[in-house]
Amino acid sequence: MKKLLFLFTVLISAAGFTQNDEAYVDAKVAQKMAELELQQNPEYFFRKDYCDGNIQMFNLPSGKLCTSKSTYYAVYVFWSEDEDVMKLQKFDNCGSFMPISISRKSTIGKLLKDKNALREGEVKPYEGEKIDENAFGNMSVQSCHKEYKFVFGGKPFEKKFKEFDLTNDSKYKNINAEHNNSLELIKMDIIISEMIKNFDENGKFFREN
After folding, report:
1. From CA 128, how far away is CA 120, in angstroms rounded?
2. What is the DSSP letter of 54?
3. Is residue 10 part of a domain?
4. pLDDT tens digits, residue range 111-164?
5. How far is CA 148 from CA 44, 47, 53, 61, 68, in A?
6. Backbone phi, psi, residue 156, to 5°
7. Percent of the chain scored above 90 by pLDDT?
8. 208 with 98: CB under 8 angstroms?
9. What would the 3-class secondary structure string for 99-167 be?
10. Structural domain contains residue 83
11. What angle is formed at CA 51 by the lines to CA 181 and CA 189, rounded to 5 degrees?
């Protein structure tokens, strides 16, 4: 075991190794959002995904190894390019990816038209229909989060929720599940997740560095 650990350490040292935390990702995203603000872009937002304690490792184009520090964060920035096209750019603990074009005629473009619904809708926390200190039994609950920041017409607002808030996975029914899943924010979140999964499975995300 010690020999394997030593060999792994040698390989990492030879190839080069990078490890970045949430602050690194936030700085990258803040820079992109600032660029969009300076351009006076009328419509842009991001979604930040993470599951506490989930660590990812990647081989970078430079040949270096990169890993998340404690938790892997993926942020997807969307912005209006023109009347027909939106752009999507991914950022994570290991850098940025090349932007991808999206038609505004897609479902996500249609959902963005109802901005008041996105602004006013609030995801309620998971609440069991009965009070029970052991409501989750022996089940394993992974703490996965989604955070949004929207800027429409120069006016920002934020939304955040746990994926668990949308489910009925405990012993007792989540009385807020139906409300939460009816929100325009969650409908858009599902579309974004499907889009990201499709891009990922089809190799559409290319690292810039």
Report:
1. 24
2. -
3. no
4. 888 999 999 999 999 998 876 555 555 444 569 999 999 999 999 999 999 999
5. 11, 5, 20, 29, 21
6. -90, 150
7. 68
8. yes
9. CEEEECCCHHHHHCCCHHHHHHCCCCCCCECCCCCCCCCCCCCCCEEEEEEEEECCEEEEEEEEHHHHC
10. yes
11. 30
**Counted domains in the chain:** 1
**Residue with structure tokens 């996975």?**
169
The type of residue at 160 is: K
Residue pointed to by tokens 């270096």: 64
Q: What range does the domain containing 33 cover?
A: 15-125+143-201
Residue indicated by tokens 């579309």: 191
Pairing of strands 73-80, 85-92: antiparallel
As a whole number of angstroms, the distance between CA 208 and CA 110 comes to: 30
pLDDT of residue 5: 45
Element housing 174 (H / E): none
Residue 186 neighbours by CB distance under 10 Å: 19
Q: Give the largest Cα separation in the chain, rounded.
A: 59
Residue 59 lies in a domain: yes
Please indicate, yes or no, if residue 29 is contained in any of the structural domains: yes
